[in-house]
C-alpha cells in the first residue's frame, strides 16, 4: 500500500506552486518522494517556497508567467532545458475576476480565460514529448488540471469568466483524457471548494463563518488537497481518466438557493 501511493522517483511540475492550493500540492508531492518543480510569476515568492519545501525533499523554483500560449511555451522551454521527461503535470495557476454584469470588462474576461483555459492546453501541447517520455503502460504519466466547484455547479457571485473558464477546463480535461489515455498519459481534474488562499479570501479570512455553509462544517486543509493530488498522481489512480474530483466537503452538490 505504501508503494501504491508513493511518488518516489517521479518528476512533477506544478504551476502556481508558490502559494495556496499549488503550494499544498507541491508540499504533498515532495513529501511523497517526487522531485518537484514549481512555477510562479513572482520570482522571490517562488524561490522562498522552493527553499521551504526543500527541507522535505527536492523542490526547484522555476519563476515564469505561464499565462496564455506564449507563457506556456516559455515555461515549457525552461523546464525542457533541465529535464527530458515529465511524469506529473499540475495545471494549477489561475486567476479570478468579479464585477457586476453591466461593468464586466473585456480585460477581466481575457485575463481569466488565458490563464485558466488556454495556458493548460498549450502547456500540455508544449510538454507532450516530455510526458510521453515519462509514460509507460506500467506507469502512466499524469496531467491534473485544477478546476473549481464553480465549474460543476452555479455560484451566484458575479465571477462570470471564472465560472465559465473552470467549466471549460473540466470539459477540456475529458477531451484530453480520451486523446491521451491510449498514449499512457492519464488526464483528470480536481475541483476544489473552500481552501484558504489569496484567491479565496473568504475562506482565508472568514473560514469559521463559511464553514457553517459547508456540509462537512469546515473548510479544506492542506492535507485534504495534498491527499487528493497524491492519489491522482499515484499508481492508485492509473485507471481513473477524465473525471473531476470535487474536494469541497459536499458543497458542489448542495447549492440549491441564492448565496
Q: Tell me the strand order in the biggest sheet.
A: 3-2-1-4-5-6-7
**Could you estimate the helical fraction of the residues in percent?**
40-55%
CATH architecture group name: 3-Layer(aba) Sandwich
Stretches where pLDDT is under 50 for at least 5 consecutive residues are: none
Q: What is the C-alpha radius of gyration, as a whole number of Å?
A: 17 Å
First-to-last CA distance? 42 Å
Number of structural domains: 1
CATH topological fold name: Rossmann fold
Portion of residues in beta strands equals: 5-15%
Estimated structural class: alpha/beta
Q: Can you count the helices?
A: 9
Largest sheet: 7 strands, parallel
Mean pLDDT, all residues:
92
